[in-house]
Amino acid sequence: MGEYGPRIAALERRAERDREALFGSESEGPADVGPEEAAERYLREGAGRAIWLYVEGRTGGRLVRFSPAEFEAIERAMNDWFECYAACHGVELDAEFSVREAAQLLLDTRNVHDVARLLTGVPDRP
Questions:
Q1: What's the rounded Cα separation, in Å, for the pair 120 and 5?
Q2: Element of type H or E holding 61
Q3: Domain carrying residue 73
Q4: How far is CA 89 from the centre of its chain?
Q5: Rounded to an integer, what distance in angstroms lies between the CA atom of residue 82 and that of residue 71?
Q6: Would residue 126 count as lying in a domain?
Q7: If we measure between CA atoms, which residue out of 95, 117, 96 comes closest to residue 108?
Q8: Other CB atoms within 10 A of residue 120 CB
Q9: What is the pLDDT of residue 42?
Q10: What number is the average pLDDT over the span 23-27?
């Protein structure tokens, strides 16, 4: 496991907990915030951090070679958070986005909200 392994594992565990808390059998989502605030949290503290970790590893002066397991874990975590984000907007989503594509969008737009809208289509543009 490389230097990014523990950070990726922590993100993956957190994404799994967030997803279970939102979609679990007796869940109604985060009790401490409303749906818009929860969606914001899933983007900024979840998907955005996962995407940025990937960007950091690919652009930090030396190319980090993520193992297949690390790559799958970071992508799965990001997609779990995109599903949670969409659910906060009343949209059911089976997210299967590429972290590479998300990273490129983040570098292009500099805004995780734009990345989420472009990938998920949520929320609809007026």
A1: 27
A2: none
A3: 5-120
A4: 15
A5: 17
A6: no
A7: 117
A8: 18
A9: 98
A10: 74
Could you report the per-residue pLDDT of 61-77, keeping only the tens digit for each?
778 889 999 999 999 99
Q: Which two tokens stand for residue 73?
A: 């874990």
* 125 within a domain of the structure (yes/no): no
How far is it, in rounded angstroms, from Cα 101 to Cα 6?
Answer: 23
Distances from the Cα of 59 to the Cα of 1, 52, 63, 65, 104, angstroms: 19, 10, 7, 12, 11
pLDDT at 30: 63
Q: What residues have CB less than 8 Å from 86, skipping those under 6 apart?
A: 92, 93, 95, 120, 122
pTM of the entire structure? Answer: 0.92
Residue 84 near residue 19, CB atoms below 8 Å: yes
Q: Which two tokens stand for residue 125?
A: 């543009």
Total structural domains in the chain? Answer: 1
Q: Which percentage of the chain shows pLDDT scores above 70?
A: 91
* Residue 13 covered by a domain: yes
- Let me know if residue 19 belongs to a domain: yes
